[in-house]
C-alpha cells in the first residue's frame, strides 16, 4: 500500500511539473500568427456585432442547445438499459416504456408550443 501511495505521489508531482513545462515550451517556441482576421470576434456565425452590448439577440440558439442536451441525456439513460435489458426483465422494460412516454410527451409539448419553428 505504501508503494502505491509513493508512486501516486511521484506521478502527481511529475504531472504537476510537466504540464506547466509543456505550456511554457509551446508559448516560447510556438508560432505567433497574428493579424486583423485572427483578432476579430466571431460568435455563432456572426462575423461582427455592430451596436451596443444591450442589443437584442435571438435566444433560439440557446433554446435549441438546451433541448438538444435534454434529449441527448435520454441516450445516456437508454444505453445501460439496452445493455442489461435481459437481466432487468419486464419490470425494466416497463420502466423504460414509462421513461420514453414522458420524453415523447415532452417532445409533443415542444412541437405544439412551436419552439422548433424558426419563422
Automatic annotation (TrEMBL):
The keyword Metal-binding does not apply. It is found in: Cell inner membrane; Cell membrane; Membrane. Pfam families: Oxidored_q4. The chain crosses the membrane at residues 6-29, 61-82, 88-111. Gene3D superfamilies: NADH:ubiquinone/plastoquinone oxidoreductase, chain 3. Belongs to the complex I subunit 3 family. This is NADH-quinone oxidoreductase subunit A. It comes from Desulfobulbus propionicus (strain ATCC 33891 / DSM 2032 / VKM B-1956 / 1pr3). The lineage of its organism: Bacteria, Pseudomonadati, Thermodesulfobacteriota, Desulfobulbia, Desulfobulbales.
Amino acid at each position: 500500500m505504501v508503494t502505491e501511495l509513493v508512486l501516486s505521489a511521484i506521478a502527481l508531482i511529475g504531472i504537476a511539473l510537466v504540464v506547466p513545462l509543456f505550456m511554457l515550451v509551446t508559448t516560447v517556441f510556438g508560432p505567433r500568427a497574428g493579424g486583423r482576421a485572427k483578432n476579430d470576434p466571431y460568435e455563432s456565425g456572426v462575423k461582427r456585432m455592430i451596436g451596443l452590448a444591450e442589443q437584442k439577440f435571438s435566444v433560439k440558439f440557446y433554446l435549441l442547445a438546451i433541448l438538444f442536451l435534454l434529449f441527448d441525456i435520454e441516450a445516456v439513460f437508454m444505453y445501460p438499459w439496452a445493455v442489461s435489458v435481459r437481466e432487468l426483465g419486464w419490470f425494466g422494460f416497463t420502466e423504460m416504456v414509462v421513461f420514453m412516454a414522458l420524453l415523447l410527451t415532452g417532445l409533443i409539448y415542444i412541437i405544439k408550443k412551436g419552439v422548433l419553428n424558426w419563422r
